[in-house]
Amino acid sequence: MDRVEDKRAAILNATLRLISQNGFHGTAMSMVAKEAGVSAGIIYHYFDSKDALMDELYRHIKRNFGQMINESFDQAQPLKIQIREILGQMIRYYIHRPLESAFLEQYTRSPYFSSEIEEEVGQYYLPLLECFQRGQQEMILKNLPAPVVHTLTMDVATALAQKHAAGFLTLTDDLIEQIIDACWEAIRQ
Amino acid sequence: MDRVEDKRAAILNATLRLISQNGFHGTAMSMVAKEAGVSAGIIYHYFDSKDALMDELYRHIKRNFGQMINESFDQAQPLKIQIREILGQMIRYYIHRPLESAFLEQYTRSPYFSSEIEEEVGQYYLPLLECFQRGQQEMILKNLPAPVVHTLTMDVATALAQKHAAGFLTLTDDLIEQIIDACWEAIRQ
Amino acid sequence: MDRVEDKRAAILNATLRLISQNGFHGTAMSMVAKEAGVSAGIIYHYFDSKDALMDELYRHIKRNFGQMINESFDQAQPLKIQIREILGQMIRYYIHRPLESAFLEQYTRSPYFSSEIEEEVGQYYLPLLECFQRGQQEMILKNLPAPVVHTLTMDVATALAQKHAAGFLTLTDDLIEQIIDACWEAIRQ
Amino acid sequence: MDRVEDKRAAILNATLRLISQNGFHGTAMSMVAKEAGVSAGIIYHYFDSKDALMDELYRHIKRNFGQMINESFDQAQPLKIQIREILGQMIRYYIHRPLESAFLEQYTRSPYFSSEIEEEVGQYYLPLLECFQRGQQEMILKNLPAPVVHTLTMDVATALAQKHAAGFLTLTDDLIEQIIDACWEAIRQ
DNA sequence: CATGAATGAGCGTTCATTCAT
DNA sequence: TATGAATGAACGCTCATTCAT
């Protein structure tokens, strides 16, 4: 990885750390610069604006998450096992990445959130969507709209990751398994 | 209700409307004043600061919600019916109050959110908590920590209310019933 | 004149002084605030933006100039005397107001200058235009387009006022009379 | 012309084009670099600073103009014809070079404009000045100070060239002749 | 109680200039 | 010579908060 990519990545990482702690409003560009160890001006060499930086970070996180999900498919397994496995990956992913989950919660409730970007990152989740659709066709899952399924799984995961990070809750491996079971019960037929 | 309370209430209502639309960052105190039909200065007679106004609004909403929940208890019913009824009230409450649910989502992810206030508003939910505890003792509900149950019910409700308000989803009465069923399946033994 | 108008006027005057010395680029809003003896923020209470402040100042100066010109008409005089009189007023006006003439020169060559505002302030000059038109109809003046006449009179006046202010030239009353004669010779039939 | 001079000239040309369109304030050094097809850093190899670049461009234009004027002298003609010829050259020069005239108008009203540079470029105009002086001695021209004569001829030319370029006026050959006549009438005895 | 003009720190962003390569 | 990433001071502007009236 060359210098240029290092600096770009440093800015994105600093942004992630600060936003998850202080929110969008509480994170000044000058703070990002300081945290990343660069000057204030150079951020605008890599990103057009604060908004563009946020959008880029969102895409980055969603892309990583999508890749992880796609890699975890085991087509040899029966659909029920596949779906439970995906569910577990999703929940564990955010629980082990409190910064990312805090950022996503902020982002999706902010004016930055737009249909265009949603459509763009949506492509990373086509295999996942298809899997859930097959689950509904084969009567393994309830016939709920995709956003509802999304809420009953991923939104629950990010919310719990936040509570864990904030100290309202301690997520042990055992408890994580129980949560996976609960989510599965919510969406299964 | 006298004049003083009218003005206080007008400020709180204006704040709710603006925050749910524009977020904390997008809502200037001068906008609140205009929306409420009062001068900018007088807000500081009723509230110590912008933060205090937000905290007060949070308490107000949580108090209302708590009252509604407490009023809906029907002790004559068996516990299972009681819990399902509460579940339905919780979900319907936020789905029919998109402003409140938008505000809560913003607030709980912001730096305003603190343990002290959580503890304070927690008192309104003691009967509810007790009911869930009995459900767990009687083996009707899974033995999950309170914040997890909270996430699987109220957080799901606020998230879906938001998606409904944003147009990503249309919540019919039928779909609401299905969501209630899903939440019940998630938490029941 | 009340306090509010005093402060508005103080800001406009400070702007005029600074722009005529330093140009648009060289005049920061913070300098205007300091020069006017007010805080930086309050300027935005009276004017929407730096651009709007400049536009307002331009309108202000053009309005004053137009009033002066209109008041100097003496309909009892023959047209030739009237036109020479107007010419003298125009030239003297800017020569005695180097700040205004410096501002106008800056403004008319800047991106602020727009057809809409030109049209708006143009109304103050209808009697003047009409007078020149009659001069052309009566074969007293050359049949030149209005912008050319404008250049041969007002633009010459502002340019000379600038050179006087910059010390490249000393404008005595005698010299001013000679300049009036020269402009008259340029436009007369 | 070698590479070095090519690059220097490219930077000066790019600057002329951009300044005439966007003004000093609207022309960033990075824009000059892009327009000239060079890197931002190299400009500082050829010019000490942005100010020095502007000064150099001013000298360049004034030198060209001076050369043109000096070459157009026809000593065989009577003085009156010579002066009228020079007048025509001056006016036509700027009218056919709107970029240069736009730049000059910006420059002469800016903080860049200084007596030292004026003195320096003044040398290119000695033959011209001498010619006007002879005109005054021979009672062909009015006995006006040099800056006034300058304003009544060159400043009029640049102002009209600007109005032509901005579309406020259309300068036909006929009209240009009329303007030359008007300027002549202004300065002749 | 109530107003809204006033403050000033802080924001996102730009850009002339430098310097490691 | 030449590049363009990097710097950081300065800009226009916002807004929570105060205070004379």
CATH class of the largest domain in chain A: Mainly Alpha
> Mean pLDDT of chain A, rounded to whole units?
92
Gross morphology of chain A is elongated
User: Structural class per helix/strand content of chain A?
Assistant: mainly alpha
User: How many structural domains in the coordinates of chain A?
Assistant: 2
| CATH topology category name of the largest domain in chain A | Tetracycline Repressor, domain 2
Total of helices of chain A: 10
CATH architecture of the largest domain in chain A: Orthogonal Bundle
Oligomer: homotetramer
End-to-end distance of chain A, in Å? 47 Å
The fourth-level CATH homologous superfamily of the largest domain in chain A is: Tetracycline Repressor, domain 2
Strand content of chain A: under 5%
Range of helix content of chain A: over 70%
| Total number of strands of chain A | 0
Q: Biggest interface pair, residues each?
A: C-D, 36 and 38 residues
Residue runs with pLDDT of under 50 for 5 or more positions of chain A: none
SSE pattern of chain A, N- to C-terminal: HHHHHHHHHH
Radius of gyration of chain A: 18 Å
Plain-language structure description:
- The structure is a homotetramer of 189-residue chains.
- Chain A has helices at residues 3-22, 29-36, 43-46, 50-71, 79-95, 98-108, 115-122, 126-137, 146-166, 173-187.
- Chain A is mainly alpha-helical and 189 residues long.
- The model of chain A has no long low-confidence stretch (mean pLDDT 92).
- Helix content of chain A is 73%, strand content 0%.
- Chain A folds into 2 domains: 1-47, Arc Repressor Mutant, subunit A (Orthogonal Bundle); 53-187, Orthogonal Bundle (Tetracycline Repressor, domain 2).
- Chains in contact: A-B, C-D.
- Chain C binds chain D through residues 22-26, 102, 105-106, 109-111, 142, 144-145, 147-148, 151-152, 155-156, 159-160, 162-163, 166, 168-169, 175, 178-179, 182-183, 185-188, and chain D through 22-26, 102, 105-106, 109-111, 113, 115, 118, 142, 144-145, 147-148, 151-152, 155-156, 159-160, 162-163, 168-169, 175, 178-179, 182-183, 185-188.
- The structure holds a DNA duplex (21 and 21 nucleotides).
